[in-house]
Amino acid sequence: MAKNNLETADFLLKRKINPNSINEDGQSLLHTAASEGRIELIKKLISYNAEVNFKDNENNTPLFFAKNPFVIQELVDNGSKVNITNKKGETPLGLFFKRKNKDNIEALLKNGANSNEKYKNEKPFLYYCDQPELAELFLGHGANPNDDFYLHYALMMKKDDLFDLFLKYGADSNKKAENGRTPLFYCTSTEQIKKLLDAKSEINVKDDNENTPLHNFMLIGRKDLADFLVEQGADISLKNRNGETPSDYYEKWKKYNFWIK
């Protein structure tokens, strides 16, 4: 802010102008200063006891209006509540996540914003992170890699960078989905299989139909993956609920593919 404008603000504040005076939306001078990124004015207002957690008509505090990380830091350093919610149940982190403002997201996480918060009261932020840089930002600030089926999703969406990231931060390689399947069932490459086995994934695990990953790869005709599993110690004699072995599944696959040619 220009020096003469600061002097004007100082002049008015010294003459007992209320630093918490509001506009028609219930927003204070601090809301405006935060939205415009005017650090010096923010400092001046706070020195005259402007309320950093003052709520407007929608229960948004100045933190919701922060233009950049410097504003966030100044407000937080002076007592702004990071995990406060507005009338929509939205936090500052949720707001800036919606706006894809990575810099402000990082500043809030560094200052204690809840990385495991449910976005829109549905799923954690991590679920919606489709870029590894953003996902790592949350994981690096305590987001739980096991509160959803992140390894499963990464494999199904063919997001190898996210798959590697979730493993790096301790995602459970034996976590079962509703159908009883672990991430191993969803691999599409031997490299993925190896990474899961290195992370202690159970090679002979069974799903709700008592199929193993080996059954699955035989059924879909991925003999290359099946062969690799066998090389790594998969049991070829295990039967599923119908008494079928992986070899039986492979015979089914060959027969089906013969008839559709």
Automatic annotation (TrEMBL):
Keyword annotations: ANK repeat, Repeat
Source organism, top-level taxon: Bacteria
InterPro entries associated with the record: Ankyrin_rpt, Ankyrin_rpt-contain_sf
Keyword Transmembrane among record annotations: no
ANK repeats: 25-57, 88-120, 209-241
The name this protein goes by in its record: Ankyrin repeat domain-containing protein
Native species: Candidatus Limenecus avicola
